[in-house]
Design goal:
Elements: E1 20-31, H1 43-49, E2 57-63, H2 82-88, E3 92-94, E4 97-98, H3 103-112, H4 116-119, H5 138-143, E5 148-153, E6 172-175, E7 196-199, E8 202-205, H6 210-227, E9 232-237, H7 249-253, H8 260-285, E10 292-298, E11 329-332, E12 342-344, E13 348-349, H9 353-361, H10 377-381, E14 388-397, E15 409-413, E16 416-419, E17 423-426, H11 442-459, E18 469-471, E19 478-482, H12 495-499, E20 516-520, E21 524-531, E22 570-575, E23 578-584, E24 592-598, E25 601-605, E26 608-611, E27 614-617, E28 620-625
Parallel strand pairs: 2-9, 2-10, 3-12, 4-13, 5-6, 5-9, 18-20
Antiparallel strand pairs: 1-14, 3-11, 6-7, 7-8, 10-11, 14-15, 15-16, 16-17, 19-28, 20-25, 21-24, 21-28, 22-23, 22-26, 26-27
Length: 626
């Protein structure tokens, strides 16, 4: 990471992975495509929009942990989402659109057009959330097709070179670190208000609520692109309504009578909704609304709204049942004829987004790049039934170090779900997945099992391809590491964990089981600084931190808890499973500095402090090329 030696920020490395893995594969089968509401054929208009001088702009808004039922337009009578509801009723609406059951895997599929396990992203932490460097991204695809590309908010696919959005085709980047504001790779002591964020790799301070700030910078990017008369891709990705549950007081007040958690969760969604309205208004004022593809979607099933409304589905975030991975997807594009309500129930997935957008805009994919998803343009433009082949899609929720076959899995085809290898549901007749009818359809079960087996066999060899943190790059001489990306063992992924000495437990002898996976690009001597607190905190290794200020909402901000002293006596540099150096922790020391000769290639780095409970992994480290 490019940062000065004395500025170690815990936000630089997010492997965080909520490991859910969704996959798509198409197979031949004749199947009906039911289009619930019709609209006129738009091929001619779409082709006209593809000329070089009239490339359509693209705005993608994706929210975090908001489910299919967390909108008024899907039937929720409590939540207030008038702007998103209006968008939905002026758009193509994919009613059977699926993602991964957790965030990083969904984002990897959306960005690359590849199955999440293929990309190396099947978790949200533990070194399993970084998008492999050989993967393409929407930023890359559209930059190469002449677009200005901007990314705002949540990335969650890597915080160090070569995994950051600025390394993956996005020329304007304004984001938090890790998978959310206040997570370990984020700016230290960040909360949802008045935070510090990464603007094109540099830390800048902001005023206001995080969602408002991300949309503000996204809209600024849109204005500048229009001013320069350049087509643009604006990827606005919120960390809300993911916990911790904070939002401006006026939105909390809209949900009086609800529990504190629901008031905060729904309040964050209503705040997003207001920003959706502001962005659509801006596009209209700038005169580019008609030639802008505007997409609204989310990254997984609801995390908190199920108790209020779940659109009749079973499961929520993390679940292999539809409630975990069926999410809203609205696409509005007047010049493409997509400005009236048109509901399409064709089964599709996040991996279809990239090839579809390239098809709609006349863009070209990189030479030799093969999508796992397919363009669904033919379905979007049809006036009625279309001869569309049935497909099987696979989604699963792993959340483990290495994938386990059939773990929390769903094999999907049009109208059917095979869950956890043995349960079969007819979604058309039983959308709540309450009646397992596997015994009545053994042939279908066998066929879907065989499909999964084939898919697994293809992907399994790739699982061992760990995404390492690059060390020794001539343009990235300083690399900052955080516990968010420890592989193996309990992983402290947010700053609350760091403050509480997680995973230490009273009365239990501790051994540090995690490590950072490194890829050393150039052999040489490297300086390795290890810390209990990040360098920018200015605090000593054994110092106790006072609780910081809290912010509005149901949750307690990570910073609003005492940072416990660890009582470290020494620090040990463990490299490739061997303890190679040990140094004492002197009184008032803020860091312990080692030097190590590293050969070119793969290494496992696992420094730890010796504390009364045993070993505690160093939450933060900085590696500098000598």
């Amino acid at each position: 990471m490019n940062s000065k030696k004395n500025l170690f920020f815990p936000f630089f490395i997010t492997l965080a992975l909520s490991f859910s893995v969704c996959f798509v594969v198409s197979i031949a089968h004749a199947s009906q495509n039911k289009i619930i509401a019709g609209s006129k054929t738009v091929r001619a208009k779409a082709k006209a929009s593809n000329s070089k001088s009239t490339k359509p702009n693209i705005v993608i808004v994706i929210t975090d942990d908001q489910g299919y039922g967390d909108l008024g337009c899907t039937g929720n009578s409590v939540i207030k989402t008038p702007h998103t509801d209006k968008l939905a009723n002026e758009s193509l609406w994919l009613t059977d659109y699926h993602v991964a059951p957790t965030c990083s895997p969904t984002r990897a599929a959306l960005m690359s057009g590849h199955w999440t396990n293929r990309t190396g992203v099947w978790h949200t932490i533990m070194g399993r959330s970084m998008l492999r460097e050989n993967e393409g991204t929407l930023g890359q695809f559209f930059k190469e097709n002449g677009y200005e590309t901007g990314m705002f908010g949540k990335w969650h696919m890597g915080d160090n070179y070569p995994y950051r959005p600025e390394d993956r085709g996005f020329t304007e980047v304004y984001r938090h670190g890790g998978g959310g504001v206040g997570q370990t790779p984020d700016v230290w002591d960040n909360a949802y208000f008045d935070g510090g964020y990464f603007h094109n790799g540099k830390i800048v301070q902001a005023k206001g609520f995080c969602t408002d700030v991300f949309f503000e910078y996204g809209n600024k990017f849109i204005r500048e692109s229009v001013k320069q008369k350049k087509p643009f891709l604006a990827y606005i990705s919120t960390n809300a309504p993911h916990g911790p549950f904070h939002c401006p007081q006026k939105y909390l007040d809209m949900y009086k009578g609800q529990s504190g958690r629901i008031a905060s969760f729904f309040g964050m969604i209503t705040n997003i909704d207001d920003n959706v309205g502001k962005t659509r208004k801006l596009l209209k004022e700038l005169g580019v609304e008609d030639n802008t593809i505007f997409i609204f979607t989310t990254d997984n099933g609801t995390a908190s709204g199920r108790q209020i409304f779940n659109a009749g589905m079973r499961g929520q975030k993390g679940s292999e049942y539809d409630g975990g991975h069926r999410v809203p997807f609205f696409m509005h594009w007047p010049n493409g004829g997509m400005n009236k309500l048109k509901k399409i129930d064709t089964l599709c997935h996040a991996v279809d987004v990239a090839p579809t957008l390239l098809d709609l805009t006349g863009g070209k994919k990189p030479k030799g790049y093969k999508f796992d998803g397919v363009s669904i343009r033919k379905v979007l433009e049809a006036d009625g039934d279309v001869n569309w082949p049935d497909r099987m899609l696979i989604t699963d929720s792993q959340r483990v170090k290495d994938p386990i076959k059939w773990r929390k899995s769903s094999v999907m085809s049009q109208g059917w779900r095979l869950v956890n290898q043995k349960e079969l549901y007819n979604i058309d007749k039983d959308p709540g997945q309450t009646k397992d009818i596997a015994g009545q359809h053994p042939d279908k079960v066998t066929k879907m099992q065989a499909f999964y087996d084939q898919w697994w066999a293809e992907l399994e060899p790739t699982f061992a391809e760990t995404t390492e943190l690059h060390v020794g790059h001539k343009k990235h001489l300083v690399v900052s590491l955080t516990s968010h990306d420890w592989i193996g063992g309990p992983t402290p992924w947010n700053q609350g964990h760091n403050r509480s000495k997680y995973p230490l437990k009273k009365g239990r002898s501790a051994k540090h089981e995690g490590h950072w996976a490194l890829k050393v690009l150039k052999a040489g001597i490297y300086q390795i600084e290890v810390m209990r607190w990040p360098a920018e905190s200015g605090k000593a290794i054994n110092e106790e931190l006072v609780a910081g200020a809290d912010v509005p909402g149901e949750s307690k901000a990570f910073r609003a808890q005492v940072g416990q002293s660890i009582g470290a006596k020494s620090a040990t540099l463990r490299l490739n499973g061997k303890n190679v150096q040990t140094k004492p922790v002197s009184k008032g020391a803020k860091k312990v500095v080692f030097e190590a000769k590293l050969t070119k290639g793969k290494h496992e780095l696992a420094p730890f402090f010796s504390v009364p409970e045993g070993e505690l992994g160093c939450y933060y480290a900085v590696i500098t090329t000598k």
